[in-house]
Every structure is written in C-alpha cells, then in structure tokens.
C-alpha cells in the first residue's frame, strides 16, 4: 500500500517535472492562438472608423473590412469621398492595392511593405504578416494580474532565432476570456517601440469585443491611429469570390 | 657646297649661335628686377598648369578606380536584358556555361566572380531603407572588388555564414544598430512573391563614398539563393583583367564565346558612363585651362618685353648703325625671350613636381566637403596623377606661344632706324 503510494507520488512528480515547462509553453501558445482566433473569428464583416491623429491635424476615414480566417482580408475606404474606393486585398502574405483614380491594381512590392498603410501608424507589413505572431514567435506566460475581477495573462513572445521579423520581443496582455488587451512591440535592445491597446469592451455581434483599438508609437504621445468599430458581424464563412482582384476592383459599394 | 665649306659654315653658325646666346643671357640680367617679374609669371603659369592638370587627372583616376572596384570590374557579363531591367527574372540561370567559357578565354592572372544582385529593403524595428542585396562568393569576390579590404568592424564573410550580413558604416549609423543585431531583408523572389529573411550583422565596411556604404549589403551567395528561390542562378559576373583595364581582344573573344542572344558583355566604359564622359570632358577642359593661363601669362610677357625693347632703343639704333641686319636683331630679342621662357619653365616644372610629390603622400582630403564631392562622384581624397602627355603639352604650349607673342616686340625692335634712335632721348 505504502509502496503503491510512493510509486504514484514519484510518477506524479516525474510527470510534473517533465511536463510542466512544456505544459506551460503549450498553454501560452494555445492561449495566444485561441485569442487570435477569437478576435479574428472565422469570418467577419466590419465597418471601422480609422482616426489618424497627429499633433497638428487629425483625419478620419471610414473603412469597410471583410476578413476570412488568418489569411484573407479585403478593405476599402468608404469615406471621405476623395479616397472612396481605395482598396487593399490581402491573401496570405501578398497584398494588392487598388486606386480608382488610376483604375489600377498594384501588387504591393517588398519595397513598400515597410511603409505605412493609408498614412496610418500601421505598416503594410503589420497587415500582411498579421499571423507572424503565431508562426514566428515562442510564447511564455510571465505573470498574471487581475482587472475588474478578471484574470489577465501577461505573455512574453520572443522571435524564433531565424524568423524574418524586425521585433526583438512582443508583450501581450490577454484576458482570461480571450480578449486581447494590448500588444507591445520592442526592438532588439528590448526598448519599447510601439503599442496597441484596446478599449471599450462590449457586446458586438453576439460576443464580447473591444470596440476601440489604438496603435501608438511609444515616444510620441500625440501621434496615434485609432480604429473604432461602428459595426461588426461575425460569420461562419464568406465566399471565395470576395477575396479576388476582380472584387478589389469593383470596390464593393 | 664642298665639305670644307660646309664645315666652315657650321663653325660660323655655331659661333653665331653661341654669340647670340651669350648676348641674350647677359641682356636678360641687365635688368634683374624686370626679368624676375617675367620669370615669376612664367613660373606660376607653368606650375599651375602642371599641378592643376595632375590634380584633375587625379580626380579622374580616382573616380575610375573607385568605379571599377565598386562592383564593376573591367568586364561584366549579364543575362540579356538585365541591364535594362535588373530584375530577378533576368538572371543567368545556368552559370556553368559562362564559367566554362571564361576558363577558356580569360588570360592567366585575371580574376572573376559571380554575384547575385537584387534590390531589396532592409529593415529593423525602427528604420527601413532600400538597399542593393549582393550575394557573393567571399573568396573570389575579395580579389575583384573593394569589399575584401574594406572591412572596418567585425569580420568578412566565411563560407559557413548562412545568415551573416555585411553592411556599410553609414547604414549601420543610419539604422542605429550594431554588430550582432538583426536585419530583415525583403525582396521579390523568382515566383514573384515577397521573400524575406533575417540576417545578423557580422561586419561593416568603409567605402570611398557614403552612398556606397548606404547602398550595398553583402551576404553569402548561398543565402541569397535560398531567400530568392534562385537555384544556382546569378545576376552578373565581374571580371578583372591583368594589366590595363581596356583589352578589346579579350572582349571580342568573350563576345564570340558567349551566345549573344543570351548574354551581354560590357566593358567598364559602358558600365560607368558618367566616369567615361568625365574623362572625355577632361581633355577639352585642360586645353581651356591652358588657354586661360596662357592669356594671362602672354600679356605679361608682351608688355614687359615691349618695355624692355623701347628702353633699349638707342642700343638697337647703335647696332643698326654698326651694320647689324634687322633679322639679326629680331633673332636677338627672340633668343632673349626663349632663354627667359626656358629658365621659367625649368623652375616651374621643378616647383610643380615638388608640390606633386608633397601631395602624393597624403593627397588632398575632401572629407570635410564629402557630401558635395560625392555628388560629383569624386572620391574623398584626391591624389595627383602625372600624365606625361599633360606635362609635355603644357611646356610646349608655353614655349611656342611665348615665342610667338614675343615676335611683336622683336619686330618692333628690328624696325628701329639709327635716326629714330638718335631722336629718342
């Protein structure tokens, strides 16, 4: 009897010893992945007001956005009328842009990937490589805190050694119900570069979702880009034909 | 004319000649101050012609050497169309054919290297910039271009460096980064998709021009092949010939050895059109410079000689009265000019060579004006380069034109009559 207990104890100990680091890593990874999937949904149709704020000016534009899975998305600008119809299609890691004024589709070349998207604080790369967080990083939970009675996981994401990413580290805050609270980008000296924060978590299309997303460069208080969801509908699927160059040209009105 | 008579006339001529020289030499130094003034004009003229000429040559030589070593070489082979559109689709997909041809055609002592060369974007967390990604074979490359001797920090590429990258000092500074840090390169691969790869900075290089340091980043050719899904393809082959940079014979043989519908062979003169044009302008410019210097100097010579002639009017009148022919007087004055010019030229040349020698050690450092000098494609330091042709031409110009302008006062002197000279007080 005693022997059995001892064996069980040792087995349990062994199990804990060998499993725990792995178990935690899997945990962090699955947490990030689940959260990513939760935030993105299977497919979504949204209207977003994007505000680009600078110390001496501010600009708002309304964007219609369709996403499907991790890979596909389509955006186009609805207002102001000057920019109406400007569209961006993303498939995998490739991007195309459409400008109705010249009636041309341009495939975004590597040289433009680091440039900002539509004058915002997001770069084309932020959009094209949005799933890079899942593929190019290893995640670990470095702590928890509580916010309004909910548990919040602090996650440190380090890039894999040869991953083609510019960041030296990312830090995420994910609430226990999978809602993304913030994502902070660090350079290789682990000094913060920019930070995305979400606000106003409320029911949107039947699930809790942050209505406002803000991307801000760390050392510039007065420069940020804010995304405000005015409508968001999650769907189980969207047709293939939506994510094509023809669809991009049509600038869905 | 028999031999004896000829001998007599030769002796007479020699006698005359020596007499002229002696007379002229003594006449020159009758008024040392005036002579010194003309000599100064001649010395400065010839000195500036030679020194400035050698500096301009130096600029040209520097530009061309720098151009050739900055990944140009004496000859280059590309896939047809690469020069018009340096895109990855225009790569040489089967370099073995070219390499075999090169082994047959190139003379002993020439070195060559194959590279991958595409435009790319380098980025880190805070900066991004367009660069030219050069995939090299480090051993062969070091013999052909500047990069082998230009490493300033860290080390050169080793065959084992699968993700090592060498960047210019200026780029390192611009990107606010240092050795050991990551640099992500993005470009388009052969499938027309975005290719990106992370590299670690293992070394930096210094180049003659800041633009070069900002433009080129070097990685292993293997690494670039993998990144761009290029197989064994290359963008260009750069060849350095032994001896002189121009070798039309080798060029022709290469042209016949390589099928022209597939490959393009270019000389450095075609690859560096700016430098070639500069070389062409240079010769014309030198002539203009000679002309300018000479006009200033020529007026000085005419003026002073004319004054001297008028001052010596009574002397010329006396010589005439004693039976000297006008032609002899003309020769007399011209010989004086000739001696003055030759003396000035000797001193001027010596001074110019002393200056050139002094400058050849350290050169003229334009680093302080580097941005402006770079705009014109000039190197940071100018070393004077002496071309025999330039020295010969500038001396000849001074001598011939100097004697030509002295004919005017000489003719004046020859025309004085004894009566005029008597009337002149």
How do the strands and helices of this protein lay out in sequence?
The complex is a heterodimer of chains A (253) and B (425).
Chain A: H1 2-40, E1 43-54, E2 57-68, E3 72-79, E4 87-91, E5 94-99, E6 104-107, H2 124-128, H3 132-135, E7 137-147, E8 150-159, E9 169-175, E10 180-186, E11 192-204, E12 207-217, E13 224-235, H4 245-250
Antiparallel strand pairs in A: 1-2, 1-13, 2-3, 3-4, 4-5, 5-6, 7-8, 8-9, 9-10, 10-11, 11-12, 12-13
Chain B: H1 3-28, H2 32-69, E1 75-79, H3 95-105, E2 111-123, E3 128-136, H4 138-144, E4 151-154, E5 164-168, H5 169-174, E6 182-188, E7 194-205, H6 210-215, E8 216-220, H7 221-228, E9 236-240, H8 248-257, E10 263-267, H9 268-271, H10 273-311, H11 313-321, H12 326-362, E11 364-365, H13 370-375, E12 381-382, H14 388-415, H15 418-423
Parallel strand pairs in B: 3-8, 5-7
Antiparallel strand pairs in B: 1-9, 1-10, 2-3, 2-6, 2-9, 4-7, 5-8, 6-7, 11-12
Helix pairs in contact in B: 1-12, 2-10, 2-12, 2-14, 10-14, 12-14
What's the overall average pLDDT of chain A, rounded? 84
Judging from the principal axes of the Cα atoms, what is the shape of chain B?
A: elongated
Strand content of chain A: over 45%
Rounded radius of gyration of chain A (Å): 21 Å
| Percent range of helical residues of chain B | 55-70%
What is the helix/strand order of chain A? HEEEEEEHHEEEEEEEH
CATH class of chain A: Mainly Beta
Average pLDDT of chain B, rounded to a whole number, is 86
What is the level-2 CATH architecture name of chain A? Clam
CATH topology of chain A: outer membrane lipoprotein receptor (LolB), chain A
The structure class of chain A reads alpha+beta
Number of domains of chain B: 2
Hey, which two chains have the biggest interface? A-B, 21 and 25 residues
Mind describing the biggest β-sheet of chain A?
13 strands, antiparallel
Describe this structure as you would to a colleague.
The complex is a heterodimer of chains A (253) and B (425). With 253 residues, chain A is an alpha+beta fold. Chain A has a single domain (40-250), classed as outer membrane lipoprotein receptor (LolB), chain A, CATH 2.50.20. Chain A has four helices and 13 strands. With 425 residues, chain B is of the alpha+beta class. In chain B, helix 2 (32-69) crosses helix 12, helix 10 packs parallel to helix 14 (388-415) and helix 12 runs antiparallel to helix 14 (388-415). The model of chain B has no long low-confidence stretch (mean pLDDT 86). The A-B interface holds A 93-94, 107, 109-111, 113-114, 128, 162-168, 185-188, 193 and B 119-121, 123-126, 128, 130, 163, 177, 181-182, 184-188, 192-198.
